[in-house]
Amino acid sequence: MRDSIVIDPGICHGKPVLRGTRMPVSLVVGSLAGGMSFEEVEREYSLTRAQIRAALKFAGELVEQEEHHPLGVPA
Question: What residue numbers bound the domain in which 44 lies?
Fold first, then answer.
């Protein structure tokens, strides 16, 4: 999976992108979260299912590594 994602200061200001593209992982994940289907993301951005899965896996691993703090208690 790490071979599928590139972090390079010279590409998209160092944001994680899919290797061989300028497609940010955040755009792929955000598109799916916004309601696009896998098929729509594949067509819209000319990606493969494997690339989409790599983006999701990377995002999941990133969240898993982060330290989380409560956002607050509802009033």
Answer: 2-64
